[in-house]
Amino acid sequence: MDLNDAPEELAFRDSVRAWLRDNLPEELSDRALGYDDYTREDLLRWHRILARQGWIAPSWPKEWGGTDWSPVQRYIFEEECGYAGAPPLIPFGLAMCGPVLIRFGTPAQKQRFLPRIYNGDDFWCQGYSEPGSGSDLASLKTRAVRDGDHYVVTGQKTWTTLAHFADWIFCLVRTGAADEKKQEGISFLLVDMKSPGITVRPLELMDGGREVNEVFFDAVRVPVDQRVHDEGAGWTVAKFLLGHERMNTARIGTSRRELERLKALATRQAKDGRPLIEDARFRDKLTRLEAELTALSITNLRFLDQLRGGRPPGPEISMLKIRGTEIQQRLTELAMLAEGPLAATSGLARHYCNFRKTSIYAGSNEIQRNIIAKLALGL
Ligand SMILES: Cc1cc2nc3c(=O)[nH]c(=O)nc-3n(C[C@H](O)[C@H](O)[C@H](O)COP(=O)(O)OP(=O)(O)OC[C@H]3O[C@@H](n4cnc5c(N)ncnc54)[C@H](O)[C@@H]3O)c2cc1C
Predict the structure, then answer these.
(1) How far is Cα of residue 231 from the mean position of the Cα atoms in its chain?
(2) How buried is residue 111: exposed, middle or buried, by Cβ count under 10 Å (0-12/13-18/19+)?
(3) pLDDT at 284
(4) Closest ligand 1 atom number to CA of residue 127
(5) pLDDT per residue over 161-207, tens digit each?
(6) Do residues 272 and 127 lie in contact, with contact meaning Cβ atoms separated by under 8 Å?
(7) What single-letter DSSP state applies at residue 209?
(8) pTM
(9) 61 HSE (CA, 13 A, CB side)
(10) Whole-angstrom Cα distance, residue 250 to residue 223?
C-alpha cells in the first residue's frame, strides 16, 4: 500500500492550490464552518465559480461535466478546498440528486435537471426525514396517491436543511399499500418547491441560526414524470444516495485548517502568564487531536488506495463519518476551552452548538456503528 502522493498527484495538488489562491474570493474564504455563515447568493457564487472552471462535479461522468479525475485527485481537490477555507458545496444537488439521476433517471430527466444542477441554476434540498422517521427512515408516512398523470402528496418532512433557499426538493414518499413490508411501496419524487400546498417553517436551533426547516405537503400535485426509477423502487434509490452522502462527511481539509486556527488561538491566549499552548494539559489534548486527525487521514488514504486498485470501499466507509465528525466536534470543544468566556461573543460558542449536529445527520454515529458491526464485522 502506497500512502504518499505520486509525483503527478503532487503536481495536481500544487495546481489546485494555486488556482484556489487566485480564484477563491477572500470575502468568502474565512467563514468555512456552518451553512448559516452564508447567504444563498454566497453559496451559489462559489458554486458558479467552480462550474465555470469545470470543477464543480468531479465525480460525474464526463458527458455531464465530470473531470475524469482519479479518486485520489478528487480527494486532493476536496482536501485543498477545505484547507483553503472555501465555502461548503451544498451536496443535495451535486452529490445526491445528481448521482441518483445519472444512475436511475430517464434521458429526459437527466437532460432537464443535470445541467441546471451543474450550473447552480437550481438549489436543491433533501426530503427524507420525518417526525419519528429518522434512523428508522423506512417507516416514513408522507403519502403520494396517484391521480391520472399526477401524484397528490400529503405529509411532513423535517430537519430539511436549507429548504428556505431551495427551488426543488427530492422526497421519499409512500405509494404502496399500508400492509406491505415498510421498505416496499416507497417512491422517489422530485418536487418543485413553488408547488401550491407546500409550506416551509423554520426550526429554531440552540445556536440561534436558520439552517433547518419543517416542510409540509398539503395535497401537492406532482407530475408522474418527476418520479425517479419505478414506482415502489424508492428504497433502492434511497440506499444508493445514502452511500454517496456518507462519502462526504469526513471533511479532513477543513479540520486541518481548524486545527491550525486552534493552535494560533492557543498561542495568543494566555494562561497563568504564559501562552496557553505551553500548558501541559492543553497541549496533551491538542496533540491527541492532531494524532487522531493524522490517523483519520491515513485511514482515508487506505480507502483511496483500495479505490485506486478498483475495489470500492464497503460498509467500513462509515468509520470516516464517525471519526471525521467526532474530530470536528472535538475541535470546537477545544476552541471553546482556549477562548474561555469570550467564546460566547466571538461566535465560537455558536459553532460549538451548531456542530453537535454532525454526529446526528447523514445517519447518526450510533447507526454508523451498527452498520460496521453488522455489515463489516458480521456481529
Ligand atoms: C442539522 C441537521 C440537518 C439535517 N438535515 C437533513 C436534511 O436536509 N434532510 C433530511 O431528510 N434529514 C436531515 N436531517 C435528519 C437526520 O438525518 C436525522 O436527524 C437522523 O437520521 C436521526 O434521526 P432522528 O432525528 O429521527 O433521531 P432518532 O432516529 O429518533 O434517534 C434518536 C437517538 O437514538 C439513536 N438511535 C436510533 N436508532 C438506533 C439504533 N437502532 N441503534 C442505536 N441507536 C439508535 C440515534 O443515534 C439518536 O442518538 C438533519 C438532521 C440534523 C440534526
Answers:
(1) 27
(2) exposed
(3) 97
(4) 11
(5) 999 999 999 999 999 987 788 999 999 999 999 999 999 999 998 88
(6) no
(7) -
(8) 0.94
(9) 9
(10) 37
CA-nearest residue, atom 4 of ligand 1 = 159
Ligand 1 centroid to 318 CA: how many Å? Answer: 15
Which amino acid does the sequence have at 119? N
Query: What does the alpha-carbon distance between residue 322 and residue 155 come to, in Å, rounded to a whole number?
Result: 31
**Amino acid identity for residue 70 in this structure:** S
Our mutation pick for probing the ligand 1 site, out of 360, 365, 371, 379, counting the most ligand atoms within 8 A of Cβ, is 360
Closest C-alpha to 362, from 327, 333, 320: 320
Q: Express each pLDDT in 142-155 by its tens digit.
A: 999 999 999 999 99
Q: How confident is the model at residue 3 (pLDDT cuts 50, 70, 90)?
A: low
Q: Return d(Cα 91, Cα 234) in angstroms, integer.
A: 19
The residues assigned a catalytic role are 245
Interhelix angle 7-23/71-84, rounded to 10 degrees, is 40
Asked if residue 338 lies in contact with residue 265, where contact means CB atoms within 8 angstroms, the answer is yes
CB 188 within 8 A of CB 128: no
CA–centroid distance, residue 364 to ligand 1 (Å): 6
> What lines the ligand 1 site, CB under 6 Å?
125-129, 134-135, 159-161, 212, 357, 360-361, 363-364, 366-367, 370
Distance 200 CA to ligand 1 centre (A): 20
